[in-house]
Amino acid sequence: MTEDASSPAAALSAASTAGAVLSAAALLAACGGGSSTDSGSDSDPQNALPANDGEAARFLAQAGFAASTTDVATVKSVGYGRWLDMQFNASRSQTHYDWLVAKGYSAETYRNSLAGVDATLWRKLIGSSDQLRQRVVLALSEIFVVSMNGLPVSWPGFAVAGYVDMLEERCFGTFRNLLEGVTLSPAMGVYLAMRGNRKEDPRSGRQPDENYAREVMQLFTIGLNQLNPDGSPKTNGGKTIDTYTLAQISEVARVFTGWDFDTTAPSGADPSYMRRPMVHTASRFSTGVKKVLDTTIPESADGPAAMKAALDTLANHPNVGPFIGRQLIQRLVCSNPSGAYVQRVATAFNDNGQGVRGDMKAVIRAVLLDSEARTPSANPGGGKLREPVQRLIQWARTVGMSSPGDLWAIGDCSNPASRLGQSPMRSGSVFNFFRPGYVPPNSQLGTNGVTAPEFQLCNESTVAGYLNFMQGLVNAGIGDMKPDYTADLAIAADATALVQRHALLLGGGTVSEATITTITTAVGAIVATTDAGKLNRVKASWLLMLASPDYQIQK
Amino acid sequence: MAHVSRLAALRRREFLKRASALSVAGTAAPWALQLAAINEAAAATAPGDYKALVCLFLYGGNDHGNTLVPYDAASHQLYSTIRQTLATPRDQLAATALTPSVALPDGRQMALAPTMTGLKPVFDAGRLAVMLNIGTLMQPTTLAQYKAGNVPLPPKLFSHNDQQSLWQSSNPEGAISGWGGRLGDQFLSSNGNATFSCINISGNAVYMAGKQAVQYQMNSGGAVAINGVTRTLFGSQACSDALRTLVTGERSHWMEAELNRVTARSITAQSTISSALSNITLQTPFETGSLAAQLQMVARLIGARQALGASRQVFFVSLGGFDLHDLLVNQHPGLLGSVGNAMASFDAALQELGVAQNVTTFTASDFGRTLSSNGDGSDHGWGSYHFVMGGAVKGGRFYGQLPSVSVGGPDDVGQGRLLPTTSVDQLAATLARWMGVSATDLPLVLPGIVNFDQKDLGFMTV
């Protein structure tokens, strides 16, 4: 117990450090929110070191979910770039698929069930040490959306498990490889109806299903408008330029015909086909010449060859870098990156420096090491609202939550009145929980045209649901998952030190002095002469910090 | 329109009287708060003068072809040939075949989907009308003009998010106000509490955002109190007070300010809503399910309109799951059953409350779908069929042009996707006029209506 308490204290050196962080942050130049600054090319971002604990904690909240005292020390010692290298190479924890099997969910009785899926998702998001991978997978799951609300098929739980495992497997490879994984995954096959899609039938008038053809272009690769490298739409006579027409969608739909599960007995008790890519049946494939954007796919191309040509064409489209890059910035760093920031990420997407296009490691590196990411924005529209699940995961990791019984029984957090209004892999549609271009109406954000996607989930119910749900968690944990307050209790007699610690770990040095003072005064009013009093101080400090807008808006 | 000018007069008089009382508070508060305060001060609710509009949005693009099905033998034969396995057999439609007060042309007959039996009596009683081939349009458009591309077309046709946004706001995704919210703008000052002008029971929709009106979002279970604010926080009143300060205080960072503005509104509105609803119970049964629960809550809120200080309100409810590229036959009937039953219960509840004449409900959706089949479902289309329900609706009949049952027909832009012959703007304008928007103010709510000669479709009793 004393070991736990002393080592964080040493790493964080409590109050004084956080104070220094704040003044340092205040001195740094403004960026973000539309103003572009040069990336400071004289220093190699790969080797840059955080100046203090706050900067390290702030980086960890972008690159992962949370800053443990150990992580803070590591980033300070090895620097941002090498920490990313370590995380790129971090081993993966047990796959979702294997965990479900190990827990007995492959028994026939679970064939139509989602049982265990929320648990294994929380298990990795909260408990897995490869937190960069987990953070990127969550981000990708909100771009290449598959939802448990929309999988009318046997073994839906294993479909989701297989899908998220696939994202884990491919998230640090190439975009092209990731796109193929998404395209041929059974889960996406079901969710966007590409599975079972058949060629046209002139006799009955049946046409190929256009669902996947449309969304693979609109949402997963190129978007609706032709883009400049900085993510702004190209225009012609003041009007945006469409990337494709309805007729082109019908053409692409013909490419994605003939695919189905890799199983001969989809009704059996074996869900393993849910983690194998779909396979092709030539007799269901729409033959003949097809056009995908400007690429002509010859009649000689069979189904797999046609799909390869289509995915190559889409993945090579100049829109992909800015379109996907901007969304990754939004998921990890800020809602309104400058055009220059988007362009720097797009440039890394187009070429990782070694001639490789779509190298996801290079893209992630460009997103996280950019000066606009590394420097808190002074712009009143800078930063982003942390998404609700991110707040839960960050706090749970920070207080060392785990599930001794390997149950991870947090469950579905979708209820907006009593929980978070959001839960991993449970979006309402393929358009995700929020849209990248969402601007809250009737606000200073709206007046100034500031994009704030996560605000699409922010309403009079969810703000209350979040605070009430977190109060319950802070008070008693959930299921067998209990917060570890050892380090907090050791300093709870000193309200200032306690609140500074929480500000640092959650806010990464961006919580205002005024908010720290408000919380410290209130927490200090709780008499801390008893263990119960100390515990109440700890709980109150966590909840007030989680509630503070300083924290909720990631700067 | 008499009541509108009376309201306007009251509005101006009250405004002048109360604006001076407010001027002290004026300068420091954010503009939106000031505006809300001024409007509340100017409120002039005439008892008994109440109107509400309810938008029921079917997310995903409802398959209109199986919602209202050709029933006369010849049309049903054409329909079955095109839709193949998607077609609803004719013998299942007998109980829901409609007999409109104005017959459809060429001996055509239509039937509601078999699971929508709940709506048949409402249609027969004259409280339900059907809008034929309605969709997003910039101006009246012929098939030749569509093909030639020589008139402005709605941007991003066939795309879910954009067409949802166009239905709701007349602009593609990224729009920041919708026509429901802009209707709310017109009536903010006639409501005692501006917060409750636009109430969304299903999350967030651009439809409900006005230029000034802010959508208040709540759940079918009611408004949620923040425990740490209403009681001590971990035994500490000081911490509870600090929580309130942190989550409601003014902030210079725009995102922090918006977060706190929402939370402050949450706290204030919750106490009003909870107390207003405490006296309202309905005898009318609603089935279980999300949409039924949402409409039940709307009915209760309408029952509580006086306590909420409301004389003009816009509500939004929704049901998802309509994007049936797959499993159409398996899933669509159940969804339509939920819609039909929930609407029928809502109609009954409004009669119970004695406000059937005062509330109009209409359905909307991303788009209609292809008439042709993809084997297991249908794909994104354009024009669709929709319902308008209420005591003030001249129901029991169809409005607009009945499209031919064909692929490659005179309204077909491909695979049986309908080019709309009635625009959403025309539907909206008719409803806006009923709510009391003057002809002069109509373009404030619906800028696109100027492109349509017929601004009133004639389905409302004014």
TrEMBL record, chain A:
Pfam families: DUF1800
InterPro entries reported in the protein's UniProt record: DUF1800 (IPR014917)
The protein's name in its UniProt record: DUF1800 domain-containing protein
Automatic annotation (TrEMBL), chain B:
InterPro entries: DUF1501, TAT_signal
One Pfam family this sequence matches: DUF1501
Protein name, as recorded: DUF1501 domain-containing protein
